[in-house]
Amino acid sequence: MAIITTICSSSTTIFSAIPSLKHPLSHQSPPPTSSPPSFKLGVSSISNEAELDIGNATETVALSSWTGGEVLFDGESDNGGLKARRKRRRKRRKGLAQSLVVDDGERDVGHEYKRVILESVKRGYLSPKEEAEISMCLKHEARIEAARRRIGEVQELDPTSKQLAKALRMEKNNVDNVLCKGRESREKIIRSYRRLVVSIATNYQDKGLSLQDLIQEGSIGLLRGAERFDPQRGYKLSTYVYWWIKEAILTAISNNTRMVRLPRRWWMLVAKIAGANNDLRNKLRRPPSYDEIAEVLNMKVSTVRLGFERGRSPISLDQAVLGQNSLTLQEIIPGPDETIPENMVKRELLKQELEKLFQTVLTEREAHILRLHFGLNGQTPQSCEEIGRLVKLSRERVRQIICTALSKLRHKEIVEPLKAYAV
Question: Ranges of Basic residues compositional bias (predicted)?
């Protein structure tokens, strides 16, 4: 109201303060200095109308400061301006939401994704004729590279172009031209199908590899598929290399994302079991059992249990135990059974009992051959042929001595003291 009062008191002041209002209100004459009684009503009505018009104009100016700084009057307001303002508001809101939600890591990934997309010089895929030419160039280059590797393995040096030409029965200039065209074809096909590689790689983010690594692996699969592409079958190159790109990305994830590598078959099985586990957890509102997961996936319960064990992430033995500041997992995890004191005592007593039986039941030669055959003295167990060479007997004779000695030790009264050490 203070603004409106000031405007009414001095209309010339508001006209000079608001340049955009000079022309719409120029048809109104300023109030006279001395007004006769018959003209007082007209002046007051003009002042009221000016007050309403200027108040509306002031409202418009205030609203325009909120909506982007544009002032539109009756003659200027149309659907195009309204749509433009709405579009600008949506962009500002979207940018504000992204700046509030996206963290630094995700922002870097987004910039990297945009940078990779913008690197594509050529938009769209190649024509069938270009696909056939590039595939043929890559096949010729692969043939020369195979010959290069074969010759390099033989002479342990990289062969020269002249040696390659001689081995392939080609001219040196032709070899150089094929290699040059092969490099150009690789660059061209990577540029043309970069968008396809990126679209596939983005589906496998947050799997342990960065987006840049996934794109590199997908590009390798793209080149591998382009070398094996046969245009005479009638398929498009993008349809054929799609599976090569996907295969290369999945292989890289299975080989490089875990400290302990899982075979590709087990990696796929673990992912399948994890997906079924999440679905059942959301459906049942509780952790599912191994039997329920096995029933859904139509596999054995032992396979599901083994899949959960293989899918666990490895942990460090130096990790501190919760609630124990000075203890680590390495200090509290029990070792193998051989290091347990009770087992060590039992093993020593068993050796003593066996020595007593060897001395009382068997002959000296039989006891010696049994010790060699079973490695009872801490040595490596030996076969009948090896023992025969040591004691200068035939292999068959050594076998007979072993059978005789074991038959003597199998008597009930002899074996009875050893039952206490049986596992």
Answer: 83-95
**CA–CA separation, 299 and 292 (whole Å):** 10
Same domain, 226 and 137: yes
Which CB contacts under 8 angstroms, 24+ apart, belong to 232-236?
Answer: 236/125, 236/128, 236/131
Contact indicator for 38, 32 with CB cutoff of 8 Å: no
Rounded CA gap, 166 and 240, in Å?
Answer: 35
Q: Residue 412: what residue type?
A: K
Calpha distance 236→314 (Å, rounded): 43
Of 231, 257, 283, the residue at which a domain comes to its end is 257
Assess if residue 251 is contained within a domain. Answer: yes
pLDDT, block means (10 residues), the chain with 423 residues: 41 42 43 41 41 46 42 47 76 54 48 50 68 84 81 77 77 81 86 89 85 90 88 84 91 81 81 89 90 90 87 79 73 69 80 84 89 84 91 92 89 75 64
φ/ψ of 251, rounded to 5, equals -65, -40
Q: Is 276 exposed, middle or buried (0-12, 13-18, 19+ CB in 10 A)?
A: buried
Distance separating alpha carbons of residues 57 and 15, to the nearest angstrom: 11
CB of 171 closer than 8 Å to CB of 182? no
Q: Which amino acid is at 82?
A: L
Say if CB 232 and CB 184 are below 8 A apart: no
Torsion of CA 296, 297, 303, 307, to 10 degrees: -100
Domain boundary among 318, 333, 348: 333
Q: How many domains does the chain have?
A: 4
| pLDDT the model gives residue 132 | 85
**Whole-model pTM over 0.70:** no
253 with 296, same domain: the answer is no
pLDDT on residue 401: 93
Handedness of CA 356, 358, 363, 364 (dihedral sign): negative
- φ and ψ at residue 258, rounded to 5 degrees: -120, 145
State whether 273 and 374 are in the same domain.
Answer: no
Distance CA 251, CA 208 (A): 12
* Among the listed residues 258, 250, 294, the one whose alpha carbon sits nearest the alpha carbon of residue 276: 294
Q: Helix 172-192 vs helix 194-201: angle between axes, to the nearest 10 degrees?
A: 50
